[in-house]
Specification:
The chain is an alpha/beta fold and about 425 residues long. It has 11 helices and 20 strands. The chain starts with a helix and ends with a helix. One zinc ion (ZN) binds next to loops.
């Protein structure tokens, strides 16, 4: 039995090639289209010739020969066709189509050539669609930004008052050169979005950072069906399984109460955008007074301006020494390094982070406690989101990408690593 060409082709579906050279590919009668059937015309002979060409040449040769970089090959079976040059026995005709990868990696970031825009570019570009305002995703210097309405003030706070910013609501669409762009809840932090990009029937979703569980602060993650799903893998190891947040908040309250009764104040380190507001939302002020670091108050004010319901909380410098005793203070992790802490007298320190799942993370930071609370998907949530996307191909960024890709392939997914400089929770610590 011959190695069936369709089997071979299916193993090479993710081949990437470049647009402008498609016409020069011999054996292809028509410009590439998507979805697939009939992309090489109705002439069965031409189709078989195209297939044979691909089969013989191999993706690498193809790429080298034509300098192609950004083309996908999709193969399927047309059950109506029964004559074949490959086998003595008739078999269903293989159909092949070429399609442009709608999103591709360029040196400035994830790029959509058809719409001429980037998603979360790491260098200045003309048009940047931003998933959320964390520092590794929202960078300074682009000419135009598109982001969710409820992240506008925080983006201006971080990128400058004068940025050219267009905003969208969830599920609202805009078009760039015929490419449809819409934003969908990512459940990560206030104003965070998955970016859905659609062109010629092909749909990609760049989910940015996300979590599937509802944190009671940001609108909950909504699965978006697509052909290509780009997922983070910050916590893409099975040891990362996060408890329900109710349980974590119960533990925090209990610890805070204990510290208070023993004459200590409680300092809780949390990222100034997202985690801090989630804590504020769920901490019970009946346990004792709550103070915030100035970086967090600044972020709170910006979020309030965008309509987020976040209570006013005092800075430690505004409180009486008496009140600080037994109080809970929320501060960004960077505050641990300065002399800022000394103002509180005896204090116990804790961090709320997904990294607290790792033994040693707490010890290295000289913390008294670590609370396992993350704004990223844990192991189970990653699987949930990937399955719900129903995507044919999964692209993995952040963190444990190579391991996670292998794991997805073992589960039967088509998956690849997407190399980006997004850094997950560590970068957010500096935000
Ligand atoms: Zn983030
Ligand atoms: Zn990130």
């Amino acid at each position: 039995m011959h190695h069936h060409p369709i089997v071979w082709l299916k193993q090479h579906v993710a081949l990437m090639v470049e647009t402008q050279h498609i016409a020069s590919l011999s054996g292809f009668d028509q410009p590439p289209q998507h979805p697939s059937v009939g992309a090489f015309g109705t002439d069965a002979k031409a189709r078989v010739r195209s297939l044979f060409f691909l089969w013989k040449e191999g993706p690498k040769t193809l790429k080298k020969r034509f300098g192609l970089q950004n083309l996908g090959i999709e193969a399927g079976l047309n059950p109506g066709f029964a004559a074949s040059p490959f086998d003595a026995q008739p078999f269903p005709c293989p159909t092949v189509s070429l399609y442009m990868a709608l999103l591709e990696l360029r040196d400035k970031g994830l790029y959509c050539a058809a719409g001429d825009f980037y998603i979360d570019p790491w260098r200045p570009v003309n048009r940047a669609v931003i998933t959320h305002a964390h520092a590794d995703h929202a960078r300074y210097g682009s000419r135009q930004y598109l982001a969710h309405r409820a992240s506008a003030s925080v983006l201006r706070l971080r990128l400058g008052k004068d940025i050219a910013l267009q905003t969208l609501d969830y599920n609202q669409s805009v078009y760039m050169q015929g490419v449809r762009i819409s934003l969908h809840p990512a459940g990560h932090i206030p104003g965070s979005a998955q970016v859905r990009v659609e062109h010629n029937g092909e749909i990609w979703v760049a989910s940015g950072d996300y979590k599937v569980r509802d944190d009671g602060l940001s609108p909950a993650f909504e699965p978006v069906r697509c052909h290509h799903f780009i997922t983070e893998s910050t916590f893409g190891l099975p040891l990362f399984r996060f408890p329900p947040q109710e349980q974590v908040f119960q533990d925090i309250h209990q610890w805070w109460g204990q510290n208070r009764s023993e004459g200590f104040s409680t300092v809780l380190f949390a990222y100034s955008l997202g985690k801090a507001q989630r804590l504020i939302k769920h901490l019970n002020p009946a346990t004792g007074p709550i103070f915030v670091h100035s970086a967090i108050r600044q972020t709170n004010s910006a979020l309030q301006a965008d309509g987020w319901d976040i209570p006013e909380l005092p800075l430690p410098s505004e409180g009486k020494k008496e009140a600080l005793k037994g109080a809970l203070v929320i501060a960004p992790p960077a505050a641990a390094r300065g002399t800022w802490l000394k103002a509180f007298g005896p204090a116990r320190l804790a961090t709320a982070s997904g990294w607290m799942a790792l033994r040693g993370a707490r010890r290295r930071q000289a913390l008294d406690r670590g609370f396992l609370l993350s704004d990223h998907a844990d192991w189970d949530e990653l699987h949930q989101a990937i399955e719900a996307s129903e995507a044919a191909h999964i692209w993995v960024t952040h963190g444990y990408r190579a391991l996670f890709v292998r794991h997805l392939q073992d589960l039967g997914y088509e998956a690849s690593v997407l190399e980006t400089p997004f850094a997950g929770e560590e970068a957010e610590a500096e935000a």
